[in-house]
Amino acid sequence: SSGINAEWPLRPGSKALANPENVLLEEAHRIAYSGGLGTPLYAASHNIAGHGRDEVLEFWEKHLRDPNNTVLVGIGMDIDTVSGLADEFLWSLDGRGLETPVTESWTGSRHSHIEAGGNTTRAVYLTQGAATGTREALLLNLIRHVVGVTTSPAVHGGNLKTKLMSAADHAQKPHSVQCLNINYSDAGLFGLSVVADSEEVGDVLHSSIGVMGSLKSGISDEDLAAAKNKLKLEIATQREVSLMGLVGLDGLLSVSPSTTAQALAAVDSITSEELAGMAKAIAKSSPIMVTLGNEKQVPALKELL
User: Fold this and answer.
1) CA angle 10, 191, 5 (to 5 degrees)
2) Is pLDDT of 4 > 70?
3) Distance of CA 219 to CAs 40, 164, 247, 275, Å?
C-alpha cells in the first residue's frame, strides 16, 4: 500500500520531529510492525492537548513502574541498596507476575510518503532484520561493511570508494547512502537510508538496492576479508571507548562474548556462503519504504523489487 501520511509532518515546535531522520524512522516502524515496535514514540500534536494528569499517571504506572520495561543499574552500591531504591521509587516485585511480551509481526510491502516540498528527498528502504544476540544480526552487521557503512565524504575523507558509493557515481548532485542495521530483542530492521536530489532519488535508490541484490550471487574472499577487518576494528575500538559500546556490540554477536578475543573470533568464523545466504533472505523479505520531501521522482515500491 502507499499514500501520503499526513499524521507526521515536520513540526518546528518539536525538537525530535524537526529532525527528518527521526521522522523517517518513526514512520518506518509504524508501517513495518503491527506489534509494540509499531507504536509511535512521539505523540501527534493534535493529541498532546488531550493528555491530562490522569493519563500521565496511568502511563507511569503501566509502563515506567513495570519491571518488564524498567532497568535499574547501581554503581558503587550493594544489591540491597539498589533493591531498596527500586521498591521505594519504581516498583515492588512482590505479587507482580511477568507479562507475556508482545510478539512483533512484520507487515511488509508498504510505502508511505510524507510530502515536504523542496529539492531534496530522503528515503529509507527496509527489510525484516534480525533480533539482538542472534547469528543473523552479526551477519547483517558484516554485510554493512561489505557494501559500505556510509557514503558520507566526512567519514571516508572523500577518497575511499565503497560499493554503495560506486553504484551511485552517475548521480550529478550531492547525495548520501547509508546501510542500516537496527536490532531489538525479538525483531530488527535492515536496509538503506538515502538522501538525494528529488530528481535523482529514484536512480540512487535503484542503484543502491542493486548493490544489495548482487550479494546473492556470492562475495569475494577479498571483500569478505576487508569487511571482517573493518568490523573487528569497530568492535575493538568501541570496546575500548565505553561500557555502552561494549553492551551494544555484545548484542550484535551470536554468543554474547565476554572478551574482545571471543568477539573477534565470532566475526572470523563467518563464511562467504553464510553471507550469500543472508543476502538471499534479505531479497526474499517484503520491504517497506518511507520517503520524505518532494514526491516528484519517488518510485513506487513495486518498481524497486
Assistant:
1) 30
2) no
3) 38, 15, 29, 8
**Confidence band, pLDDT 50/70/90 cuts, at residue 158:** very low
On the question of pLDDT at 55 being above 70, the answer is yes
CA of 112: how far to CAs of 6, 20, 210, 274, in Å? 10, 14, 21, 32
Query: Terminus-to-terminus CA distance in the chain, angstroms?
Result: 14
- Of the candidates 304, 298, 88, 82, the one whose C-alpha atom is nearest the C-alpha of residue 209 is 304
pLDDT category, 244, cuts 50, 70, 90?
A: very low
Q: Are 194 and 208 in contact (CB under 8 A)?
A: yes
Q: Among 263, 255, 238, 234, which residue's Cα sits nearest to residue 133? A: 255
H or E segment and range at residue 138: helix 135-147
Q: Please state the φ and ψ torsions of residue 197, each to the nearest 5 degrees.
A: -60, 140
**Confidence label for 172 from pLDDT (cuts 50, 70 and 90):** confident
Output the average pLDDT for the chain. Answer: 78
What would the grid cell of residue 206 be?
A: 535503484
Rounded distance between C-alpha atoms, residue 108 and residue 110, angstroms? 6
Cα(228)–Cα(230) distance, rounded to whole angstroms? Answer: 5
- What value does the mean pLDDT take over residues 246-255? 46
3-class DSSP state for residue 142?
helix
- Could you tell me the CA-to-CA distances from 165 to 63, 170, 237, 265, 292 in Å, in that order? 43, 10, 24, 29, 22
| Residue of 203, 151, 208, 146 lying closest to 172 (CA atoms) | 203
What residues does 128 pair with on adjacent strands?
189
Round to whole Å and give the CA distance between 209 and 164: 9
C-alpha cell at 110: 508498504
User: How remote is the C-alpha of 33 from its chain's centroid?
Assistant: 13
Share of the chain above pLDDT 70, in %: 73
